[in-house]
Design goal:
It is a single chain. The protein is 63% helix and 0% strand. The chain is mostly helical. It has a single domain (3-18, 39-325), classed as Hypothetical protein af1432 (Orthogonal Bundle), CATH 1.10.3210. The chain is flat, with a radius of gyration of 21 Å.
Length: 333
């Protein structure tokens, strides 16, 4: 018996009735021979970790653009925190941790440079708009591996596409990631905002429910989610905790995400992103080879220009902008 088959047998024994077992996957876009060691979801997790888009997240903004300091979250550290929270919930509910982790690690692969400010800019200027969850799916389906994509399973792709509030994943594991994303970013953004001096603290009404530290807030939300999701085919919080999380998110929007500083930085990002997009849409031959290949495969040049800008890290976008639009210093000897 192969190692994969042994692991599939273990899943049958230990996973709960609402878990997605790897043997029941709806499969991949392109059929391929199964791995003799890893289950399909383990294989997807590894493909995501080893792809270029995953590595680029370490230099992409989470909330604070070009922060001075080493301890602010990036898109990559956010992703790892989501994965850890999601795995904790999945394990307690006897769900498939491998599927949960794969979705969590891939959910933000399509995010732009400069966080939601970059996403907002591309959404305004790209024909058909731009949403990072749809772009994450495009990354794993089309852009990675020189246009061949990662060929992930249907369940991982579904979880990546539907991790936002406005949509609902088809698996319990995807639902876990969707809620874990909110738990993660709400709490670590508080931590970063306090570090940046934008906040002194959160209101007492939230601390009375969640505790005084980031770890206690996260622990309270995880425990509440587990207790209210046991034995049902849904992932949910109690009404009280849901209201607390909603109030905390509203507080963050009013005091951090839509602060004067954030709005002023968003305007700068919009100009930078717009200029880069316009340049590469009008000069598609200037894009890197893998993006030229997408056009050779029939992709529209505007769509590929959007892909190219979205894939950039913050520092690469800034460096390229300076190179293309800022006059170089010169001297006469």
């Amino acid at each position: 018996m192969e190692l994969r088959e042994k692991q599939e047998e273990i899943e049958e024994k230990i996973l709960g009735p609402f878990a997605m077992k790897s043997v029941n996957t709806k499969g991949r876009i392109r059929p391929e021979k199964k791995c003799d060691i890893r289950t399909d979801f383990q294989r997807d997790r590894d493909r995501i970790i080893h792809c270029k888009a995953f590595r680029r997240m370490k230099h992409k903004t989470q909330v604070f653009i070009s922060p001075e300091g080493d301890h602010y979250r990036t898109r990559l550290t956010h992703t790892l925190e989501v994965a850890q929270i999601a795995r904790s919930i999945a394990r307690a509910l006897s769900l498939n941790e491998d599927l949960t982790e794969a979705i969590a690690l891939g959910h933000d692969l399509g995010h732009t440079p400069f966080g939601h400010a970059g996403e907002s800019a591309l959404n305004e200027i790209c024909t058909g708009g731009f949403e990072h969850n749809k772009q994450s799916l495009r990354v794993v389906d089309t852009i990675e591996k020189d246009g061949n994509g990662l060929n992930l399973t249907w369940e991982v792709r579904d979880g990546i596409l539907n991790h936002r509030t406005s949509t609902k994943p088809s698996t319990m594991e995807g639902m876990v990631v969707r809620l874990s994303d909110k738990i993660a970013y709400t709490n670590h953004d508080i931590d970063d905002a306090i570090r940046a001096g934008i906040l002194d603290d959160i209101p007492k009404e939230f601390k009375d429910v969640l505790g005084n530290s980031s770890s206690s807030r996260i622990n309270s939300m995880i425990r509440d989610t587990i207790e209210n999701s046991e034995g049902i085919r849904d992932i949910k919080m109690s009404e009280g905790m849901k209201e607390t999380l909603g109030g905390l998110r509203q507080f963050m929007f009013e005091n951090v995400y839509l602060s004067d500083h954030a709005v002023s930085e968003k305007k700068k990002v919009h100009g930078l992103i717009t200029n880069l997009f316009d340049y590469f849409r009008d000069n598609p031959e200037k894009m890197d080879g893998e993006f030229k290949k997408l056009m050779e495969n029939g992709e529209d040049k505007e769509r590929v220009a959007c892909d190219y800008v979205a894939c950039m890290t913050d520092r690469y976008a800034i460096t390229l902008y300076k190179k293309l639009f800022i006059p170089s210093s010169w001297s006469i000897y």
